[in-house]
Amino acid sequence: MKLAFGLLLLAGVSAASVQQPLLTPSTWDTDNDEYEFKFPIQRVAIIGAGPSALVAYRELTEVGFEVRLFERDRAPGGNWHYTEEAPADAPVPSAPIPVGDFVPSFAPPDVELPYSQEYEDDAEIRRDHRGPKPVWESLTSNAPSPLQQLIEWPWPVGTKWELSHYAFRNYARSYASYLNINSNDENPATAYNTRVELIEKRLNEDGEEQGWRLWLKSLTPTGNNTSRATWWTEDFDAVVVASGRYNAPVMPLIPGLADWVRRFPGLLGHSRQYRRPEAYTNQSVLIVGASVSGSEISRDINTSARKVYQSMRADNDSAAHYRLANYMRRIPKNTTFVGEISRFIPVNEGQSMQSSQIELKNGTIITGIDRIIFATGFRYSFPFLPQYYDDAFYTPHEGSSSSVQPFLPTDGSHIRDLHLDLFYIPDPTLAFLGMNLGTQSFSYSDYLCLALAKVWSNTAKLPHTRRMWEMYEERAEERGGLGKHFQFLGPARLTANIRFFMGWLNEAAVKYGGKQIDGLPKYTDEVNDYWLISHYGGPLEERRSDEEAVLESLGIRLPHLSDEASRQYDYNPMYDDNW
């Protein structure tokens, strides 16, 4: 097969773009009550090997699909695959979202595929290929184990509620072994150390769109400092994107930051690089951001650092999301809270960072800082789907469709045009798995993956395209519009979604056959209540006023929610990106 080289150029990407779903009449199927796929689905690709991807593999293979699972890392587990190796420095300013995770790598133009190339001194190539995860050595779960488990694979009786990331890594690996798709199972259905560089719509012999072509790159170690890269393509009828949502680090746009990063290499970094507190012993540390990673790193670092400052910015977003006051309970009392940073004051040649100055928005100047950690979150980034970004120029390869409809926002804040946050409405053979915030991703994935298997095997039906768009618009209105909290669920929406999936999928099972699914265990709410008391010191409303008073003294105001409203958003804030 000849590689017709496709040039990918990224034009200027706006920091924030207002984008609306494209609801053109030509995309509506008005003749049928149900969506009809244009061709039967047989081969399915799964991108990723985290817990949700493993469940997808189980559900899809159980109903007879031929499934291939591609994982860029060397083992399953997703974010739970901890290594001492840290990611590369996050660029300042942040990389354009279409390449925020990685820059795709292709074989030289006009070569036959598969094509291989040898690398020497490949440490950086290996690191960028596998993408080390944003996990530190002492990280423990911030949701109790009874709520953070797969329905089919419960924890052993007596398992403690708070578990280390090592326990979750082993849990994911044990489940992968049960499915015979662990990295040491040598199952031809899996491709570890393999990154998906590009996904294109494939054209059949009649020039009609039919399925997807994946451009793949594997990286196989051949020695201590050498490896072999191999590029090839594979074709599929449907694709599940389960590559995670914590891949593109965000560095804030603060005047002077880029100059400080250049002048003080290694002293300023994103929280995804944090591994151990010993590296900060007897140092004065500024943590920018106070959401989940910011507050937990603050706890971890406090016993080693000489002084810890925590910078927080105003939380003025009225959309449903996790409130900063919740995380303040986890931050040690000897931490000094400061307001939002206005600028990093320019430094003179040869000046140390400790003698340099940082100005806050309230005019306060702080100095004497040895290290800075930016716990400023992540954005959605899918470098293998460049044609679906508005500001990307993309040339399709030979045999691929040039008719695409951009739907990925170039600010990476959310994902548009998904039915049930799962199926891509214009073409439901493309699905995104595990993209919601504010939910128990382990147990919720069972419902999503069963929906994938039933819909693609034609044993459950999607509504026609027009109705999917109507439901999408209704959901967008209920969630306060598109934006960074659009994928947020919280317990009320989660409960409603699970009830919807149960009703829809179980009714389909009665009509078309196949398995049914139960709801979450009855103890879920009670376990969550006990966890909040033990982990956060009590229900949010009991201490809300005290925490808000502290924040307001720094010029930081939180939206005033009712006790009932604020309570429901206190739920599994795993790696939230508010700061």
UniProtKB/TrEMBL annotation:
InterPro entries: FAD/NAD-bd_sf, Flavin_mOase-like, FMO-like. One of its GO terms (molecular function) is NADP binding. Coiled coil: none annotated. SUPFAM superfamilies: FAD/NAD(P)-binding domain (SSF51905). Keywords: FAD, Flavoprotein, Oxidoreductase, Signal. Residues 1-15 form the signal peptide. Pfam families: FMO-like (PF00743), NAD_binding_8 (PF13450). Belongs to the FMO family. This is FAD/NAD(P)-binding domain-containing protein. It comes from Hydnomerulius pinastri MD-312.
